């Protein structure tokens, strides 16, 4: 669809079409499926749309064009969604200083529950804690 309307719209209008159609569908439930193997397919679609908007070739890098259009790539949008989930639901997370009284350098980090299941570790709750703890204090 983007290739069809490109000759008739300006770049700002194309960006608006991207945000209204593709971006809204891409971000729906992203924290649940953004860590899956199939997210690469969505990233390729996103790159194809950026290439159509910018009018660049299929083998050119999209990195600078994402910055120019102020659009986050799928992985960055996934990380942002996880961080917003953790911040908005702060009541469900414990800090390490709440679980023990030992003065460590990680006492202000969120407590990561012990789990051996990889399905749980790839989930929203656990991944959100890992990403949040990797931020600088």
Primary descriptors:
mainly alpha; 137 residues; 9 helices; single chain; elongated; 2 domains
Q: What do you see in this structure?
A:
The chain is an all-alpha fold. It has two domains: about 1-70, no CATH class; about 90-135, no CATH class. Helices cover about 60% and strands about 0% of the residues. The chain has helices at about 1-5, 10-25, 30-35, 40-55, 65-70, 75-90, 95-100, 120, 125-135. Helix 2 (about 10-25) runs antiparallel to helix 4 (about 40-55) and helix 6 packs across helix 9 (about 125-135).
Largest sheet: none
Radius of gyration: 19 Å
Shape verdict: elongated
Detail the poorly predicted runs.
none
How many H/I helical runs?
9
Q: How much of the polypeptide forms β-strand, as a percent range? A: under 5%
Number of domains: 2
Distance between the termini: 44 Å
Helix content: 55-70%
Helices and strands in order:
Blueprint: H1 2-5, H2 11-27, H3 30-33, H4 39-54, H5 63-69, H6 74-88, H7 96-99, H8 118-121, H9 124-133
Helix pairs in contact: 2-4, 6-9
């Amino acid at each position: 669809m983007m290739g069809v309307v490109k000759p008739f719209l300006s770049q700002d209008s194309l960006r608006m079409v991207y945000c209204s159609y593709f971006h809204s569908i891409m971000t729906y439930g992203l924290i649940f499926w953004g860590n899956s193997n199939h997210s690469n397919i969505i990233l390729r679609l996103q790159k194809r749309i950026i290439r159509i908007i910018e009018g660049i070739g299929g083998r050119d890098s999209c990195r600078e064009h994402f910055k120019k259009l102020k659009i986050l790539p799928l992985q960055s949008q996934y990380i942002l969604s996880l961080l917003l989930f953790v911040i908005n639901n702060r009541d469900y997370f414990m800090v390490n200083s709440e679980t023990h009284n030992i003065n460590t350098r990680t006492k202000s980090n969120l407590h990561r529950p012990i789990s051996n299941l990889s399905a749980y570790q790839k989930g929203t709750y656990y991944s959100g804690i890992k990403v949040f703890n990797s931020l600088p204090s």
